[in-house]
Design goal:
By secondary structure, this protein is mostly helical. It has helices spanning 21-35, 42-49, 53-56, 63-78, 87-103, 108-113, 123-138, 143-165, 170-186. The protein contains 9 helices and no strands. It folds into 2 domains: 15-66, Homeodomain-like (Arc Repressor Mutant, subunit A, Orthogonal Bundle); 78-186, Orthogonal Bundle (Tetracycline Repressor, domain 2).
């Protein structure tokens, strides 16, 4: 028999909130870590949360927005404090931390790389981008070169993570990417 106090798709109040941003983020992270980005879809996430898929639409409009929220949560949980570091060390730390964090979520680096860097509007993703832009400015890159340097940085960092994920030669790939990043840093005043 159906419980008359329970509405379809919603949890009882004593069971906690039907769905909030924190529960959604935790479910996305858990699925991505266990099975990779490819396993994420509205129905799967809803099933893991024990809610109706339509409730997810109260927080995100589609799968793409759900993935962007996931990526923002990855940055929120993994980016170190960059205060007090030189511009070069900040960029090295962002690159290294990004690779380590994304390695935990198969397919994440490729999925982020496939999305336009201009769409970084969520708070933690935007903070990372702003930190990278500021570091390149401090390195002597002119305004016209900062955007190009940021794109190169993202392609090297995320592309390197994609390559390392798909290869047994991860240390060699990471060393090559680090070398390419150092060359990018050295080109600041050019």
């Amino acid at each position: 028999m159906l419980d008359p106090t329970r509405r379809r798709g919603r949890r009882r109040l004593e069971e906690g909130p039907a769905l909030d941003r924190e529960r959604l983020a935790a479910a996305l992270l858990a699925i991505a870590e266990r099975e990779g980005i490819a396993a994420i879809n509205m129905r799967r996430v809803a099933a893991d949360l024990g809610v109706s898929p339509r409730l997810i639409y109260h927080h995100v409009k589609d799968k793409d927005e759900m993935l962007l929220a996931l990526f923002d949560e990855i940055w929120a949980r993994n980016m170190p404090d960059l205060a007090g570091l030189s511009w070069r060390d900040r960029l090295r730390e962002v690159a290294a931390t990004s690779r380590r964090a994304l390695a935990r979520y198969p397919g994440a680096a490729a999925a982020i790389l496939a999305r336009s860097t201009g769409r970084i509007t969520l708070p933690h993703s935007a903070q990372v981008r702003e930190a990278v832009e500021k570091a390149f400015g401090e390195a002597g890159f002119g305004p016209e070169r900062i955007e190009a340097a940021c794109i190169q940085f993202v392609v090297l960092t995320l592309g390197g993570a994609v390559m390392a994920e798909a290869s047994s030669a991860k240390p060699r790939i990471e060393a090559s990417i680090d070398h390419a990043l150092e060359q990018l840093f050295a080109s600041g005043g050019d």
